[in-house]
Amino acid sequence: MFINGNLETTFKHRFTNLWEIDALEVSGDLRFEINLHHKDGIAFHYNRFDENTVVRNNRTMNEWRLEERSGEMPFQKGKIFQMIISCTTEQYNVFVNGNLETTYNHHFTNLWEIDVLEVSGDLSLTDLYA
User: Which domain holds residue 11?
Assistant: First the structure.
């Protein structure tokens, strides 16, 4: 992954309020993942695979839950896109280039414990808006 032109393996951003993250601007080719962490795991895992599918999941105490795969692939190889992850009391809403791409119901409900955004994979992170 490239961050501001520098090769990095993972970008982690610590925040105190889940509502701080408004948008990510990234471009990529084959595979990337975005995770919202809490102290015991991952509240929201969003993963784009090179098999032309997007996976959503969560993990608590080192145990993955049942993953969700649905919808169309919203990404194109090498194209810049903007992603907005918004959070309501019931679910995450993932927007790609202004269009609602998917929703994911909360399985981890202590939202105030989510404190790290992790981005990794085959992409370039150009901006993070808070």
Answer: 2-129
Per-residue pLDDT tens digits of the chain, which is 130 residues long: 444 445 444 555 555 555 444 445 555 556 788 899 999 999 999 987 667 788 999 999 899 999 998 777 888 777 777 888 888 889 998 888 889 999 999 999 988 888 888 888 777 777 666 5
Number of compact structural domains in the chain:
1
CA distance 128 to 82: 10
Nearest to 8 by CA among 122, 116, 117: 122
Domain CATH for 90: 2.60.120.200
Residue 51 CB partners (closer than 8 Å, separation 6+): none
